[in-house]
Amino acid sequence: MGHRLTRIYTRTGDDGTTGLADGSRIEKDAPRIALMGELDELNSRLGLVLTEAVPNDLARCFEEIQQLLFDLGGDLSIQGRSTIKEHHVLWLEAWLDHFNDRLDPLKEFILPGGTRAAAYGHLARTCCRQAERVAVSLNRIEPLPAYGLEFLNRLSDFLFVACRILGESDDAPPHHWDPARAPLLPPRD
Q1: Domain containing 69: what range?
Q2: Where are the alpha helices (DSSP H) in the chain?
C-alpha cells in the first residue's frame, strides 16, 4: 500500500462526495458507493461471525472471503479493475459442496437462529443478498467487474450452507418453518 492515512478526517467529503482510488470524486449516494457500503457491511458481519466458535476450516474460508470482499470493493473503486476471477467462484463452489456434503438433505425451510454463530451467519447471508440486489441495479447502469455478480450469488449460497454448519448443536437444534402451525394463543387468566 503506497499511501498511508496519517489523518482520518480530510473534510473533502463535507460536500457529499467521496474519493475513489483513482482520484476521482463521486456522490456518496451513488449506486457504486452504495454497493461498496453493502460489501463493507457484509465484511463486518462476517467479522462478527468470527467472534464466535467457528470450525477451523469454515473460519479460514470466512477469512479468505473477507479478503475477497475487500478486493471487490477495491475493484469498484478503480474503474476497469477486476481482481475477482472465475477461480474464486469455483473456489466457493468447491467449499460449498464440501460443507453441504456433510449435512443431511434439506427437507424443510430453516428459520434464522439456532446458535448465536448461526444467527450472525444469517445476518451476513441476508446482507449478501442485499449486496447482490444492489450489484444487479448497478450493473444495469455500468458494468460490474467480471465475476462480481457470480461471486456474490455463490457467496449467498455458501453462507446458507455455512449457517447450517454453524447451527449444528445439541443445545440448539435448527427450527424449521412449519406451514401447518397453529398460532400461539396467550394464556387465559
Answers
A1: 24-166
A2: 31-49, 56-77, 86-100, 116-141, 148-166
Cβ(38)–Cβ(134) under 8 Å? yes
Report the C-alpha gap between 120 and 50 in whole angstroms. 9
Query: What cell was used for 187?
Result: 394464556
Answer for the pair 7, 117: CB distance below 8 angstroms, yes or no: no
Domain CATH code at residue 107: 1.20.1200.10
Dihedral angle sign, alpha carbons of residues 171, 177, 182, 187? positive
Asked if residue 186 belongs to a domain, the reply is no
Beta bridge partners of 26: 18
- Ranges of the chain whose pLDDT falls below 50: 1
pTM: 0.85
Neighbours of 154 (CB within 10 A): 20
